[in-house]
């Protein structure tokens, strides 16, 4: 399967973009109420937890931290939560957020790669990343997120 790669230029500092991507205040807005639970130590668990099919503590996706450099890079393995796939280790992929200052803005690159053949969440991920990344850009630049309507 091909890699998913997106680049956005955001009118904000790397610290502001990082806060939107990592802090509970930011993630709740761009990930529809979810927060990241992790120590952010290499090898440790990372979970996106929030409202969903199993209530407020639904684990949507999880993995292990591979690299972590505040305001610059986070890379982790990616598995779909047990609520969505009984054999949640059947398909592993990897997510990388890379932040780079460019002039007075930040270049955010997201790479979702190392997909397993026939991963049923590939297409859904491609669709979802556009909304998540547009919400990230909008949040940093305006202080609010976009309204994608119900079911987003």
Structural features:
Activator of Hsp90 ATPase 1 family protein, 24% helix, ASHA1/2-like_C, 3 helices, Alpha-D-Glucose-1,6-Bisphosphate, Chain A, domain 4, seven-stranded antiparallel β-sheet, START-like_dom_sf, alpha+beta, 152 residues
Outline the structure in words.
24% of the residues lie in helices and 40% in strands. The chain is of the alpha+beta class. The protein has a single domain, classed as Alpha-D-Glucose-1,6-Bisphosphate, Chain A, domain 4 (2-Layer Sandwich). The mean pLDDT is 94. The chain has a seven-stranded antiparallel beta sheet with strand order 1-7-6-5-4-3-2. Helix 1 packs across helix 3 (122-142). 24% of the residues are buried. Strand 2 (35-38) and strand 3 (45-52) form a beta hairpin. The protein has helices at residues 14-22, 24-30, 122-142; strands at residues 4-10, 35-38, 45-52, 55-69, 73-80, 93-102, 105-113.
């Amino acid at each position: 399967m091909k890699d998913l790669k997106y680049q956005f230029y955001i009118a904000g500092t790397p610290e502001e973009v990082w806060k939107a991507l990592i802090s509970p205040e930011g993630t709740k807005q761009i990930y529809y109420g979810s927060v990241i639970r992790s120590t952010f130590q290499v090898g440790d668990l990372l979970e996106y937890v929030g409202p969903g099919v199993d209530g407020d503590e639904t684990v949507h996706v999880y993995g292990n931290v591979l690299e972590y450099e505040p305001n610059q890079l986070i890379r982790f393995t990616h598995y779909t939560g047990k609520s969505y796939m009984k054999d949640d280790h059947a398909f592993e992929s990897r997510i990388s957020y890379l932040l780079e200052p460019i002039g007075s803005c930040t270049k955010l690159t997201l790479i979702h790669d190392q997909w397993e053949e026939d991963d049923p969440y590939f297409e859904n991920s491609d669709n979802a990343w556009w909304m998540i990344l547009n919400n990230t850009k909008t949040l940093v630049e305006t202080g609010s997120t976009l309204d994608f309507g119900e079911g987003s």
